[in-house]
Structures are given as C-alpha cells and as structure tokens.
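Its record is set out here:
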Amino acid sequence: MIKASDFVKGGVPLGIAIGVGATVVAAAFIPILPALAKAARPTVRAAIKSGIVLSGKAQELIAETNEQLEDIFAEAKDELARESEIVQQAESAEYRETSAHKGNV
C-alpha cells in the first residue's frame, strides 16, 4: 500500500508546487511579452549596431597587424639574404687566400 510519506520522500509535493508556480508565472508573464518585446527593440537594435561597429574596428586592427607582420617578415628575409651573402663572400675570400697561400708554398 502507498503511504503519504512515500510521496513526500520522493519529492512529489515539491514537483507539484514548482509546476503550479510556473503555470501562475507564465499566465502572468505571457500577456506582458508583446510590450516587453516592443520596449526591448531599441536596446537590441543598439546592441546590434555596437556589434557591427566593433566588428569593423576588429577587422581594421587585424588588417593593420597583418600588414606589420608582413613587413617584419620581409625585413627578416632581406637580413638573412644579406647575412648569407656576407658569409659566402667571406668564405670565398678565405678560399682564395688559402689557395694563394698553397700556391706560394
């Protein structure tokens, strides 16, 4: 046989109370929804406009950063080419000196 204490232990009264409360709140809230939507429209529109402006600024920042990184990359590449050229010239001069020295011996 089912006892009343089984319902209380299982949380049934709490579930019923939550359901009734949600129904009451929904019944009171649903008629207000159109007015809330109308009132919230300017705020939502302003938030969307801010998002669009922020997105444009972010795109500009990314483009500038990308351009600066490309410049730095090109400068580093040029420096490596110059350093490599200097090393090759030094090695070739050293080779000529060694060859000339061997020829004199």
Summary: The longest helix spans residues 33-104. Residues 11-104 form one domain. The chain has one domain: 11-104. The mean pLDDT is 83.
